[in-house]
Write a structure and sequence with these properties.
Blueprint lengths: L1 E2 L5 E6 L6 E6 L6 E5 L5 H16 L11 H12 L5 H17 L10 H13 L4 H20 L25 H14 L1 H13 L3 H6 L1 E2 L4 E5 L5 E5 L10 E4 L2 H10 L20 H14 L3 E3 L2 E2 L2 H13 L4 H8 L4 H9 L3 H8 L5
Parallel strand pairs: 5-6
Antiparallel strand pairs: 1-2, 2-3, 3-4, 6-7, 7-8, 9-10
Helix pairs in contact: 3-5, 4-5, 6-7, 7-11, 12-13
């Protein structure tokens, strides 16, 4: 520990699981206890970094100055916030930070101004990410910059404008012929992509859930109960409700899994959909949307079929067979109002499939 002429005391320590030394001190202007990474794992080098920090603090109104690099700031954020948030949220913030580094490459938190965030938003849109996904990254940037403001890395929060989603962009359930068309196109490109699209149409899984789905072990996994029936075992960190839960698979999906994947081929802890070993959720979502566009399947005036329309397709079919309470459980809707839409807006083709089964 050292003391400056202004009676500023800075101590060095290592956080559990972190390689670099951290400096801790009491801010001379606010009286708050602050800490940040020295960026050094060597004790002697970290002491020199601490000496430089004393001068920075004495010459700046903030404990964590505008000269702190973005990488050091993000390391501080991880150390302070990651222990208290879900693993899924940690992964999302890490993904956002990777995109920030690739697209903007900010030198410091203070260099993240409104213009840079707008450029980031435009770049994600050009990459083909959906408004929902872009807004998710923007919300993560807000979280990071609020932390930066709270701890003195920046003086003011930049304005961050979210994408306003037009109501007309929502999709619809697909017909049997449209699903078959997507499967045919996918099969000509990548059999694993075809497998995923077929699985989505039978399961009603969200694309993010399908990418997490594993055999027997994991935050979102397929298991068998004592009677041999297949269930989703979902950890609290893997869903919005924040609750541990066991949920039945749709009968069609359970049957499809048993036919497609014999027990001997199931790798405990491995992804059910092998495509997810090689590509991220965003990339897979874009691949499926590209197939919907290539097939010319319009689900609204300004939108072609996407992964979520396969979920709508599954829910619409199930609505022909089950009462609302059962459908709500199978689709894991938080609100029964969402479930009831599938009864109020029944797809004609699905109704005809029930009235006139194949071969009749």
């Amino acid at each position: 520990m050292i003391k400056s002429a202004d009676n500023l005391s800075i101590s060095l320590f290592k956080r559990t699981g972190r390689k670099n030394y951290y400096a801790e001190w009491t801010c001379p202007t606010t009286g708050k206890k602050l800490s940040r990474s020295t960026g050094e794992s060597d004790k002697r080098k970290s002491e020199k970094a601490r000496d430089r920090l004393v001068q920075q603090i004495m010459n700046d109104a903030y404990g964590a100055t505008e000269h702190t690099t973005w990488d050091m700031f993000f390391e501080d954020f991880q150390a302070a916030r990651f222990p208290d948030i879900k693993e899924t949220s940690q992964r999302e913030i890490l993904a956002t930070n990777n995109k920030v580094l690739k697209i903007i490459s900010p030198a410091t938190p203070a260099s993240m101004r409104s213009q840079q965030v707008m450029h980031f938003r435009q770049a994600l849109t050009k990459l083909g990410l959906t408004p929902n996904t872009v807004n998710k990254h923007l919300r993560n940037i807000k979280t990071l910059l609020r932390f930066a403001k709270q701890h003195g890395y920046i003086q003011d929060l930049p304005a961050i404008e979210m994408i306003k989603k037009a109501k007309a962009s929502k999709g619809r359930p697909l017909t049997k012929a449209e699903v078959a068309q997507m499967l045919e196109i996918a099969g000509s490109k990548d059999e694993k992509l075809q497998e995923l699209i077929e699985g989505l149409s039978h399961s009603g899984l969200r694309i993010g859930e399908a990418c997490q789905l594993t055999w027997e072990q994991g935050a979102f996994s397929v298991v068998k109960n004592s009677s041999g029936r297949m269930l989703y075992s979902i950890d609290s960190e893997a869903q919005k409700s924040g609750k541990d839960e066991s949920v039945p698979l749709t009968p069609r999906f359970a049957q499809w899994l048993n036919e497609r994947f014999p027990d001997a081929t199931r790798r405990t802890g491995g992804h059910v959909f092998v495509l997810c070993d090689h590509f991220s959720e965003d990339v897979i979502g874009r691949k499926i949307s590209a197939i919907g566009k290539g097939a010319g399947i319009k689900v609204s005036a300004n939108k072609c079929a996407s992964a979520h329309d396969l979920r709508r397709t599954c829910a619409s079919k199930l609505a022909m067979e089950y009462m609302p309470a059962v459908l709500k459980a199978l689709m894991r809707h938080a609100d029964i109002g969402t479930t009831m839409k599938y009864y109020a807006n029944s797809n004609l083709e699905n109704v005809l499939d029930v009235i006139y089964p194949e071969g009749s």
